[in-house]
Specification:
The chain is α/β, with parallel strands linked by helices. 48% of the residues lie in helices and 15% in strands. Helix 2 runs antiparallel to helix 9, helix 3 packs across helix 4 and helix 6 packs across helix 7. The longest helix has 41 residues. Keywords: Hydrolase.
Length: 331
């Protein structure tokens, strides 16, 4: 048998094995996806608006906190994000941003329009003022909301936020994995499901959670990280939102940071490979009276600091809530 025939047989065997694995795995895939989609629809609501359909989660009681989720998120991801990094019992209002899950892709899908959409949702829910928490790309519409609606924003929390800073301020950082890998992974529910089953670390790397960072995590943080990974599914219903985030971020030329008057807490890590720490430092310099907290390690997900962060955000929210000019509004 010559080498060419041997290679052809090996290729045919490999292809057959791959097809067999796909066929065997499909029932498990469809079962998992049906459960995920069922839970998504049961846990969220929708309203119609000038921006199209808005999907949102409204859970809990207490001080209202509007959560602006990060890239590849959604209302489900944002709720997990809030429970992981916020301390105390709050009323969490978590919209799916434009193009995520059941929220429409608005004709104007800019971060400014997303802030206006947040305000429309709050008015629809008869909520006058909120603490706003934004993480990663969700930090930009959170900042726009604080600048455009100061009367509605009692406090602003920015975690590992994407932002604008003059190019001279920072040295560009590479994404954890090449851009084309994101495109491939984030189009196919099945491919992403296989990755989560076989190598969840590949999914963790998307969020900048390296193996070295995970070694310093508590069991609770690892559990949250895994739940956040699974909350990316179905990725096919988040892909358009992610692409729009990318377009918006790439076209950032500045933010109205000097117009933000709400108390502001900014948290970032030096080793963040997704949002350079210098963005947070520059943002803190431009927002008068803001508080900047930096960690040497933690990456984009601020791993290893969950308990400390909960105490930090809890104290910040309580202090903002104690301000007489808005305390009466929520009583």
């Amino acid at each position: 048998m010559n080498f060419r025939k041997l290679m052809l047989k090996a290729a045919a065997f490999t292809a057959g094995l791959i097809i067999l694995c796909i066929v065997v795995s499909l029932p498990f895939y469809y079962y998992d996806m049906s459960k995920l989609k069922e839970a998504l629809e049961a846990g969220s609501k929708t309203i119609q608006s000038p921006y199209g359909t808005i999907e949102y989660v409204d859970i809990g009681e207490g001080i209202p906190v509007l959560v602006s989720h990060g890239t590849m998120g959604g209302s489900d991801f944002g709720a997990l994000q809030a429970k992981g990094y916020l301390s105390g019992k709050y009323r969490l209002i978590v919209p799916s941003r434009f193009g995520y899950l059941r929220s429409a892709m608005a004709e104007d899908a800019s971060f400014e329009a997303q802030a206006d959409c947040f305000a429309y949702l709050l008015d629809s829910l008869n909520v006058d003022q909120v603490i706003v928490e934004g993480m990663s790309a969700g930090g930009v519409p959170a900042m726009q909301f604080a600048a455009r609606y100061p009367e509605k924003c009692a406090g602003l929390i920015l975690l590992s936020t994407v932002a604008y800073a003059p190019p001279s301020v920072y040295k560009s950082q590479d994404l954890p994995v090449p851009g084309f890998v994101y495109d491939t992974m984030l189009k196919s529910d099945y491919f992403f499901w296989v990755l989560l089953k076989l190598t969840p670390s590949a999914v963790h790397n998307i969020a900048g959670a390296s193996e070295s960072l995970k070694r310093n995590c508590s069991p609770e943080e690892l559990k949250l990280l895994n739940r956040l990974g699974w909350s990316f599914l179905p990725v096919s219903q988040r892909f358009e939102g992610w692409k729009q985030d990318s377009r918006n971020i790439n076209s950032l030329t500045g933010l109205p940071l000097d117009q933000i008057t709400a108390p502001t807490l900014i948290v970032s890590a030096d080793d963040d490979t997704v949002a350079p720490q210098a963005w947070s430092r520059y943002t803190a310099e431009q927002i008068a009276g803001s508080q900047l907290v930096t960690y040497k390690t933690g990456g984009h997900m601020l791993l290893g600091h969950m308990e400390e962060l909960r105490e930090l955000t809890g104290s910040f929210i309580n202090e903002a809530y104690a301000a007489e000019d808005w305390k009466s509004e929520v009583q």
